[in-house]
Amino acid sequence: xxxxxxxxxxxxxxxxxxxxxxxxxxxxxxxxxxxxxxxxxxxxxxxxxxxxxxxxxxxxxxxxxxxxxxxxxxxxxxxxxxxxxxxxxxxxxxxxxxxxxxxxxxxxxxxxxxxxxxxxxxxxxxxxxxxxxxxxxxxxxxxxxxxxxxxxxxxxxxxxxxxxxxxxxxxxxxxxxxxxxxxxxxxxxxxxxxxxxxxxxxxxxxxxxxxxxxxxxxxxxxxxxxxxxxxxxxxxxxxxxxxxxxxxxxxxxxxxxxxxxxxxxxxxxxxxxxxxxxxxxxxxxxxxxxxxxxxxxxxxxxxxxxxxxxxxxxxxxxxxxxxxxxxxxxxxxxxxxxxxxxxxxxxxxxxxxxxxxxxxxxxxxxxxxxxxxxxxx
Length: 377
Description:
Rossmann fold; six-stranded mixed beta sheet
């Protein structure tokens, strides 16, 4: 009996010992499991995310804007769009204007490469004049986005362009409609610029489509476009002094349209209408004026052009592959669509003309994050 009690007691003690060991083992495993995630979480939170690192790398960039010319309010609003968007991305812009001198523009591009800007924007460039500089930029690894420059043959460059043939078609078709398909017109246009050459394609098609609309004079100079146009059109008006001799003027650039409108208004020839291309605040004010001969224009918002161009450059700075050609679609603006009781600016134009205004073209999630990050400081 005593021996059985002793054996029973020993077995009970052994069982308790085993249970204690098992409990301790489970506790250590749980402690280990609970401590492992905490350690991993701490490590992950202490390192910046890939997205945040990418955004930070885009801040503080130095951008060069190499321009063939910087004339008129359209160019001023375009430059404003470039500057504001670069600033929103935390960068700085240096404008290198060339006064319509291609040799100077080539030197400005070389200078931008030599100064090691992070990125280069080109406005109204010329392929032949800029070839050496473009090759130097490529060798230096400096990304380039060009506007209205016709640089499609250069690999790696994104070319931003307005739909220039459509710009011309919009205005020429309205001219033909309001002229009743006949009349005498003056063309103000200049060769040597990719957008002008594209607009000329539509003009040639227009003359074939409307054989009863005759061109009686054609001229244009980009060096001092507004004053030159005014002076030359004044001479044409004297050559054709009678009302009905000239039906309309088609101007392939807003600087030409302003000069033409001034000449016609001063001559008191209010029967002649002007149809232009491009649009700025100054242009819009003239079109709204019921005494002005300038009645319509086709355009892309110049501020928006600058904004979109910067976005594509920053995509390149981020290492993205961008399209070789990005086309901006224009809108047509006629006096009849505008308010008659007040003067508006291009910032308000979208209320009256569908399709005008800011564009989200070229924007990405990380660029929005970059802009928000810079704006938060």
